[in-house]
Fold this sequence. Notes:
The chain is of the alpha/beta class. The protein folds into two domains: 2-170 and 249-306, Purple Acid Phosphatase, chain A, domain 2, CATH 3.60.21.10; 187-244, no CATH class. The protein has nine helices and 16 strands. The protein has helices at 12-21, 51-63, 73-81, 98-110, 113-123, 144-157, 162-168, 174-184, 231-234; strands spanning 2-5, 25-27, 30-32, 37-40, 67-69, 129-132, 135-138, 187-189, 196-197, 203-204, 206-208, 254-256, 273-275, 277-278, 285-291, 302-306. Strands 1, 4, 5, 14, 15 and 16 form a six-stranded mixed β-sheet that branches. Strands 6-7-12-13 form a four-stranded mixed β-sheet, with no helix packed on it. A hairpin with a 5-residue loop joins strand 9 (196-197) and strand 10 (203-204). Helix 6 packs across helix 8 (174-184). The protein starts with a strand and ends in a 5-residue tail after the last strand. The relative contact order is 0.15.
Amino acid sequence: MYDLIGDIHGCADELVELLHKLDYSEQLGVFRHPRRKVIFCGDFIDRGPRIRDVLQICQRMCEEGSALAVMGNHELNALTFHTPDPHAPGEFLRRHTEQTIRQHNATMTQLDSRDLAQALAWFRTLPASLDLDGVRAVHACWDPTDLTLLQQVSEELGWMSEDFLIRAATRHDPVFRAIERVMKGPEMRLPAGLLVRDKEGTSRPTVRIRWFDPPDGQNCSSYMLPSESIPELQQLSVPLTVRACPYPLDAPPLFFGHYWLRDATPAPLRNNVACLDYSVAKDGLMTAYRFQGEQTLCASRFVTVPRKQPA
């Protein structure tokens, strides 16, 4: 069976503690369990203090068969950040703006050129999703239409090849729209004039949503993920333009990260849906779910480690 782990963001101390708590032991430089495997839900890099160590631990586990992994939006961003734009000399597919440099700065500071090249090569091997025996994993959104399109284009161009990345970074290209939803999740545009401050302090006119649930009967505040009590939004119905992707109640249990939940005690979002990102990079929890093959997920199977405070 599987132990699914959410966003890590360079927090190697917490990752090692969590693996030990899940009864994995280091053998010849690789964390292993005699009967179980880890599934990492992406976002290995950026923000945390030990990015190189996180990459070494996770990549070795994957290479030695004690773990599987999907790509997160930070790995996708790194690939496009470091891929030159062939149509704009001197530019990259992900423009080097003040914001994108700040988001990626910890990784660039902590990795030398060789480490970075090895990391990018590994990122290219990570799939968008995993559909295994009775369990599924993706970084942000399970949309069968988007996942099918990405599979078709990857068969034509090669997964994360330069041609694939060009399309993935080109606005209005169907590949851009599909990978944005899978890696970053669908969003809801707020009425004109309304802004919400995100986790990094940026005021945004869009918010992430509970895409796995239909929006019927929800207001803009309750349909946010994570939901927030915002009086202006509690009075507004979810716009008809929102494209959700309701996840069937009888589908295999689905795990993802990405959403920076802040609850002190993790719990399933629904009977067969769980988020494993509890904001370890913002002094929250590194979170795992010990999956035993159950169809109905249980709060008691979450395993957490708090963010360590710097000495």
